[in-house]
C-alpha cells in the first residue's frame, strides 16, 4: 500500500499489481470493519465488496452503491480525503440511503 500511496504523492500512477493490491487490501479492511451486505462498494477495475449491516442485497443492481476510482478510494480509506469533500466534489458516486460511509472511514 505504501508503494501505491508514494506513487500517487509523486504524481505517478502506481503499477497495476501494486494498485490492485492496495485497493483490495483496503476494501477487505472496510468489509471487516463494517460487516454486512447492505452496501456495495465498487472500485473499478480492481474490486468490490459488500459491507454495512442492514437489509441484504441478493439480485440485480444493489439499492445502496458507492463507486469511485482507485486514487480516490485510497485517499478516502487512508484519511487523506474526507467523505464529505469526495461526495461534494463528485469523486464518489453514491445511491441509496445506506450508502454513507463517513462513519467507517478512514480505515
What does this 3D model show about the protein?
This protein has 107 residues and is an alpha+beta fold. The chain contains 4 helices and 4 strands, in the order H-H-E-E-E-H-H-E. Helix 2 (16-33) packs across helix 3. It is globular. The model has no long low-confidence stretch (mean pLDDT 94).
Concise account of the structure shown:
With 107 residues, this protein is of the alpha+beta class. Helices cover 37% and strands 17% of the residues. It has a four-stranded mixed beta sheet with strand order 2-1-3-4.
Form type: globular
Estimate what percentage of residues fall within beta strands.
15-25%
Rg value: 13 Å
End-to-end Cα distance, whole Å, is: 13 Å
Care to count the β-strands?
A: 4
For the largest beta-sheet, the strand count, sense and barrel status come to:
4 strands, mixed
Largest sheet strand order? 2-1-3-4
Average predicted local confidence, pLDDT: 94
Low-confidence stretches: none
Q: So how many helices?
A: 4
The helical percent reads: 25-40%
Helices and strands: which structural class? alpha+beta
Helix-strand sequence: HHEEEHHE
Amino acid at each position: 500500500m505504501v508503494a501505491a500511496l508514494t506513487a500517487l504523492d509523486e504524481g505517478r500512477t502506481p503499477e497495476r499489481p501494486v494498485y490492485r493490491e492496495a485497493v483490495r487490501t483496503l476494501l477487505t479492511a472496510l468489509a471487516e470493519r463494517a460487516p454486512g451486505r447492505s452496501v456495495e462498494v465498487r472500485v473499478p477495475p480492481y474490486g468490490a465488496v459488500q459491507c454495512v449491516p442492514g437489509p441484504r442485497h441478493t439480485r440485480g443492481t444493489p439499492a445502496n452503491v458507492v463507486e469511485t476510482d482507485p486514487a480516490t478510494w485510497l485517499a478516502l480509506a487512508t484519511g487523506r480525503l474526507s467523505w464529505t469533500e469526495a461526495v461534494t466534489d463528485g469523486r464518489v458516486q453514491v445511491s441509496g440511503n445506506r450508502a454513507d460511509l463517513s462513519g467507517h472511514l478512514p480505515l
